[in-house]
Design goal:
The complex is a heterodimer of chains A (244) and B (319). Chain A has 244 residues and is an all-alpha fold. Chain A contains 13 helices and no strands. Chain A is 80% helix and 0% strand. Classes of the chains: A mainly alpha (244), B alpha/beta (319).
Chain lengths: 244, 319
């Protein structure tokens, strides 16, 4: 725990002192505001809920989470600090998890800062707070899954740009796999089992379902296992260059 | 004697089919300062990375006070202070924040962190630069940050990869002073290209090339491998031809040559066979014959020459 806490604290401070986190948060808030209020017309709908907001969020996360994740490991590789970090008596898992949690914390902070929208719909009408809370929990889970994927990909390259582009691509695939046009395109062309597996694995349909109703244990397990697998891959990538 | 502070057992590390380190073995006791020498690409850094637990050995093992650096990494790493090549540090942090992070990562209790960091910074000569972001520091100060990080927890084993590379002569002298100060109670392994540094601070030299150890001995013994070791350059009042004959008769003298310049008053160069000391006998002969000695120089051999001789030899020819 000490190792994890130490790494987590250092990464959080690194985000805080670099311009990345503040810029990320501001861009995120401006974009989600514009999309929800202007493009989707939250007020014009005349409904006291945040459905359009939660519809846009995963797409926005797909771009902004990779931007947060890209530096996690590639920068350590590029500057040689990774060698120092891995020769401290920390163990690999606490380092991987600590870094991931710090990046996730920044993403959660950005998502949390959209709370004025919640207040606004509460003042204007009588929204279902359970659904909104469930929506928030869901998007936090999606951001976590994307972040874990991003951290893992960042460990495979010393270039932040490569890490960003690859992460964006993988997150896009993870999301689109269950998207209706994609499903109807591949349906009938591949064995039905594959379609089902893709639908099960895919992030977006699950997100849609859980953000619209209740956040279930089932969903939590799904996302936590996704995060666990991605971080396992992260450990493997970090160790790949070290193994004899 | 108990467990050596560092023990390398037939370490091998392959990158693909390339054997960067090919059966390196040696051990280091506390109180020793090992100069780890070798041409670029000889496998010095790779060996150090295995010793510090960063790389897994392909074969063999590296032990730190009996703890395997790869199989018991946490215990082994706790005993080692490591300055990686180029002294990497988190650029956006200040030295004080970076050193505190390293201290916490090494399990230093919260109440001791401030004191230990201050102590290490003091020893590394960092006191006045503690609040500047590391990226704004000069190369010399960045190196000191790396050194402070390595000595922070007062480890019994110090592994320093080119600690003085790129420093100016004053900074080099300071780093050497620091290593000398700490040497008595630690096992120090430092890699370097600078042979004078080896003479100045190392008690033993391990010379490697192409991944194998070519020599493991004290700087003095290594220097004696120079064919010119114990060579005497003499100027005296005797006639050169006569002096040459007299000197060649001394036991242990291989041959006598005329020094550069030539002519009747040229210096004579007396080569010792097998590096035996001959200066005393040379002076004795001059004294007995009543020749006045104008100058007599003993050449102690140069590590430079030995380094080049050993590392440019083909591997098949290596003894």
């Amino acid at each position: 725990m000490r190792a994890l806490r130490t790494v987590y604290a250092r990464e959080l401070v690194a985000y805080a002192v670099s311009p990345v986190a503040p810029i990320f948060i501001v861009i995120f808030l401006v974009l989600i505001g514009v999309m929800t209020l202007n493009v989707a017309g939250l007020y014009e709908r005349g409904l006291a809920d945040l459905t359009p907001f939660f519809n846009y969020l995963p797409w926005l996360c797909m771009f902004l989470v990779p931007a947060l994740a890209m530096r996690l490991w590639s920068e350590e590789r590029r500057t040689g600090t990774g060698e120092l970090l891995l020769t401290l008596p920390l163990g690999i898992w606490p380092v991987v998890v600590g870094k991931f949690l710090a990046a996730w914390t920044i993403a959660v902070l950005a998502i949390g800062l959209t709370f004025p929208l919640w207040i606004t719909v509460s003042v204007l009408g009588d929204p279902d707070h359970g659904v909104i809370l469930s929506g928030y929990l869901s998007i936090i889970m999606v951001a976590g899954a994307f972040m874990a994927v991003g951290a893992s990909i960042s460990a495979s390259t010393s270039s932040q740009v490569v890490a960003f582009v690859l992460t964006l691509l993988v997150c896009l695939l993870l999301s689109l796999a269950g998207f209706r046009p994609v499903v109807s395109f591949i349906d009938g062309r591949v064995p039905p089992g594959v379609v089902e597996a893709l639908l099960d694995l895919s992030v977006l349909p699950r997100y849609r379902a859980m953000s619209a109703s209740d956040f279930s244990l089932d969903d939590a397990v799904y996302f936590l296992s996704l995060i666990g697998c991605a971080l396992g891959l992260n450990v493997a990538f970090v160790n790949a260059g070290r193994a004899g | 004697m108990g467990t050596p502070a560092v023990q390398l057992d037939s370490l091998v590390r392959c990158f693909g089919t390339f054997r960067a380190v090919d059966g390196v073995s040696f051990s280091v006791e506390r109180g020793e300062v090992i100069g780890f020498l070798g041409p670029n690409g000889a496998g010095k850094s790779t060996t150090m990375k295995m010793l510090t637990g960063y790389l897994q050995p392909s074969e063999g093992r590296a032990l730190v006070e009996g703890n395997d650096a790869w199989r018991a990494p946490t215990r082994a790493k706790a005993l080692v202070g490591y300055l990686p090549e180029g002294a990497p540090a988190y650029a956006e942090m200040t030295p004080v924040a970076f050193l505190r992070f390293c201290a916490r990562a090494r399990g230093v209790a919260r109440r001791d962190v401030v004191r230990l960091v201050e102590h290490a910074a003091e020893r590394a000569g960092l006191r006045h630069m503690m609040r500047q972001p590391i990226e704004t520091l000069s190369k010399g100060y960045k190196r000191r940050v790396g050194l402070a990080q390595a000595i922070l927890h007062d480890p019994p084993v110090l592994v320093l990869d080119e600690p003085t590379d790129g420093l100016d002569p004053n900074q080099k002298a300071e780093v050497r002073r620091l290593i000398n100060e700490m040497a008595p109670e630690k096992a120090v392994i430092l890699s370097t290209h600078i042979l004078e540094e080896v003479e100045a601070i190392c008690t033993r030299v391990v010379l490697i090339a192409q991944g194998t150890v070519l020599a493991d001995e004290t700087p003095g013994v290594l220097r004696a491998r120079d064919p010119g070791h114990q060579r005497v350059t003499l100027r005296c009042s005797g006639a050169n031809a006569e002096v040459r004959t007299a000197l060649a008769a001394i036991g242990g003298v291989e041959r006598v040559e005329e020094g550069p310049g030539g002519g009747s008053d040229a210096a004579l160069v007396v080569y010792a066979s097998g590096g035996a000391p001959i200066a005393g006998d040379v002076a004795g002969v001059c004294h007995d014959r009543g020749w006045a000695v104008f100058s007599l120089e003993v050449h102690s051999g140069s590590l430079d020459r030995v380094f080049r001789d050993l590392t440019t030899r083909s591997p098949e020819g290596a003894a």
